[in-house]
TrEMBL record:
Keywords: Nucleus. Pfam families: BTB. Residues 161-173 have a biased composition (Low complexity). This is BTB domain-containing protein. GO terms for cellular component: nucleus. One of its GO terms (biological process) is regulation of transcription by RNA polymerase II. Residues 1-43, 161-240 are annotated as: Disordered. Residues 11-37 have a biased composition (Basic residues). InterPro entries: BTB/POZ_dom, Dros_DevTransReg, SKP1/BTB/POZ_sf. Residues 206-215 have a biased composition (Pro residues). The keyword Nucleus applies. Coiled coil: none annotated. The keyword Nucleus applies.
Length: 255
């Protein structure tokens, strides 16, 4: 009878030991599962910074190819009886004037007629917009910068304004040397040089070492959206389009 009780007690202890091992194994399994889930969540939160080193070069080359092949063009610029196709996104990125003009126009492919812009300057400006650089002859730089300022081309309008201020300061210095002292007008926004009286007898030597000040043609621009052309270019959205660059492939016209 005593041996039977001992066997039962031993069997009971074995069952408790097995249950304890099973419980530990279950807890270990839950811990591993929780650790695995936590690792998965950490992997989801982890981020990678992927950088395309050739992105600027590739984008620039892509836009150049689009212009050369006239793919996806959605705007036409016309002047002096000629026209050239371009992309709204490029014009808007390079000129706040074009951005404001195109943003407020519902046409899918408008034709912008520029009355006071030369065709050669327009083509050169488009090359600057698409390539980021351009080479200009010395005798053409003045007209080129004037057109760039007129159309508010980024990077060139500022240079044109600086050159205009430099020429204005140079002309005022020459006038002050020729016409005598200038009144102190520091409180006024624009210095004014006193002109000599036409009745005064002013004798000038025939070979004067100081040449007369150059005549700078000033263009009065609107200030609603920065400097704008004197007359807003018309947008052709209905009617007969202008003469296309490719007669067999007419430009789409807004209907």
């Amino acid at each position: 009878m005593g041996s039977s009780n001992g066997e039962q007690q031993h069997h009971h202890q074995q069952q408790q030991h097995q249950q304890h091992q099973h419980h530990q194994h279950h807890q270990q399994h839950q811990h591993q599962h929780h650790h695995h889930q936590q690792q998965q969540q950490d992997d989801k939160k982890q981020t990678y910074n992927l950088c395309w080193n050739e992105f600027p070069t590739n984008l620039l080359t892509f836009f150049k190819e689009l212009r050369e092949q006239e793919e996806f063009v959605d705007v036409t610029l016309a002047c002096e009886g000629q026209q050239v196709a371009a992309h709204k996104v490029v014009l808007s990125a390079c000129s706040p004037y074009f951005r404001s003009l195109l943003k407020n126009n519902p046409c899918n492919h408008p034709i912008i007629i520029l009355n006071e812009v030369g065709y050669s300057e327009l083509v050169t400006l488009l090359q600057y917009m698409y390539h980021g650089e351009v080479q200009i002859a010395h005798d053409q730089i003045t007209d080129f910068l004037r057109t760039a300022k007129l159309l508010q081309v980024r990077g060139l309008a500022e240079a044109a304004a600086a050159e205009s201020r430099s020429r204005g300061s140079s002309g005022e210095c020459r006038s002050s040397r020729e016409n005598g002292p200038v009144r102190d007008t520091a409180n006024t926004p624009t210095p004014k040089v006193e002109a000599p009286d036409p009745d005064d007898d002013v004798v000038r030597p025939p070979d004067s070492p100081s040449p007369p000040p150059p005549q700078v043609k000033r263009i009065k621009l609107s200030s609603s959206v920065g400097p704008q052309p004197p007359s807003s270019p018309p947008l052709v959205c209905q009617g007969v389009p202008l003469v296309p660059l490719h007669p067999r492939r007419p430009y789409p016209v807004c209907l």
